[in-house]
Amino acid sequence: MATFNGERFILEQLRSLADQEMLPTELVVCDDQSTDATVDIIETFARTAPFAVRIYRNETRLRFSENFMKAIGLCRERYIAFCDQDDIWHPSKIAKSVESLRSSGALMCSHRVDLIDQHGALLGSSSNRSAEMMLRGSTFSPWGVFLGFTCTIDNRLLQLIDPTNRPRDLIEYDKPMSHDRWFYFVAATFGAVSYIDEPLALYRQHDRNVFGRTRNTIIDRLRKTARKYPAYIDQRATIASEVVSLLNRAQGHSTSAELADSCGRWRQVAEFYTARRRIFSQPNMYRRMRQFVLAYRRDQYHAGWGRGGTRLMVQDMLATMIVR
Q1: How far is 270 from 152, CA to CA, in rounded Å?
Q2: Contact in structure between 149 and 83 (CB atoms under 8 Å)
Q3: Among 175, 204, 233, where does a domain finish?
Q4: What's the pLDDT tens digit per position in 117-141?
Q5: DSSP state of 217
């Protein structure tokens, strides 16, 4: 559990951990210099908790993702579940997640969630869904991720590849890949991710969510596209290239067929986004359209894992005319 000024909701979350059908062996908490009563609440809970609670207070602010990475590294057990401070877990969450990992041999498990407001009233279901019950190789999206607090991992993931030089994150581009996105990527690269199509937690939406559900109209999305499209393409091209470099280095220490296959697929993604970057680096619509036509004639938009296809081709064609 990574905490920061969570006194408002954390006790409900802690109680939901104590009510689990399969109790955690330990709760590892890394607090990111809270200035409210968060740590006091955890310490009070720890006195009667039916499992060990270890609390670490950061000397400097790490922010949520690096704080999670620190907490994960301090865990001692085989299965590690990421826990936010403001949600509520259903009693069967740990048991069903661990059973999914054991029965499938997957390296990560995720599940569906229900949304609640700050008062606990149901708002609906989240977009944390998967059509596939097992994701591996070409069945997982290169740009996808499951909500972090839905994820339970096998600690073997910590030994497969060094997270120190993680590629840049897709959302917070100036920072390393977030903890949930990183482990999703590593699990699907070296093994598989299992998915439980059942809500096993309540995802609280409130005014202090770091990330939450967003509502955008078509006009909002078009405006966002016009504003960010060139940078968005450039960022993905850079991230894909960084992933290829990372996997190439890992291949020097592994003979894994899954790793070799993943490296090849990411090379194709990097090539595709490099071609798209060439289009959207042009200074005006006419030059962008010319580069787009060249890319089309060179079959750059051929459908494949993480790249191409008719929908994306049409999207890029329209974007050449509206981006600034």
Answers
A1: 29
A2: yes
A3: 204
A4: 999 999 998 878 999 999 998 899 9
A5: -
